[in-house]
Amino acid sequence: MASSYSQSMGSALSDYTHLRTLPALLSVVFVLAGLYQFGGISEVMLTWIDYTLTAEHATFISIGAYAVAFASSETKQFDSYEDWEKVAIIAGPLVIVGYQYVGIVTDLINTSSNLGPIVAFLATVVAWGVAVR
């Protein structure tokens, strides 16, 4: 009886560990894709398969990771968030997609200094943090 209890506890602990590993991995992927998209890092290359990340792929990766993380968060219902959190959650994907596909957004973010892309990246990270709480 004690053996089955320890196995079930081990199984529960393993499930919990895997549950926390996915959001952490998604966070790393999201941040790396965002850094690349907004110019924080210049090149992401997977040498094993001779692939260099493109800005468009970084956009898809960011939006995909964002959607999966939001869908798997503990607070999935949009009504459960405060108004400022709702704005942040909506603004994140809009900035990500707008920067890639909407010229006005790209021009607005790409100022003469690096401040615009830095602020845009930080806005997406804040949106991520709010969405996955």
Describe what you observe in this structure:
The chain has one domain. A hairpin with a 4-residue loop joins strand 1 and strand 2. It has a two-stranded antiparallel sheet with strand order 1-2. The chain is globular. The chain is built from five helices and two strands; from the N terminus they run αββαααα. Helices cover 72% and strands 3% of the residues. The model has no long low-confidence stretch (mean pLDDT 83). The chain is mainly alpha-helical and 133 residues long.
SSE map:
Elements: H1 2-37, E1 45-46, E2 51-52, H2 55-71, H3 83-101, H4 103-109, H5 115-131
Antiparallel strand pairs: 1-2
Helix pairs in contact: 1-2, 1-5, 2-3, 3-4, 3-5
Please give a handful of descriptors for the protein shown.
two-stranded antiparallel sheet; mainly alpha; 5 helices; 133 residues; 2 strands; globular
Summarize the structure.
This protein has 133 residues and is mainly alpha-helical. Helix content is 72%, strand content 3%.
Oligomer: single chain
The helix/strand series, from N terminus to C terminus, equals HEEHHHH
The averaged pLDDT comes out at 83
Radius of gyration: 18 Å
> Count of DSSP E strands?
2
- Percent of residues in helices comes to over 70%
For the record, give the distance between the C-alpha atoms at the N and C termini, rounded to a whole number. 38 Å
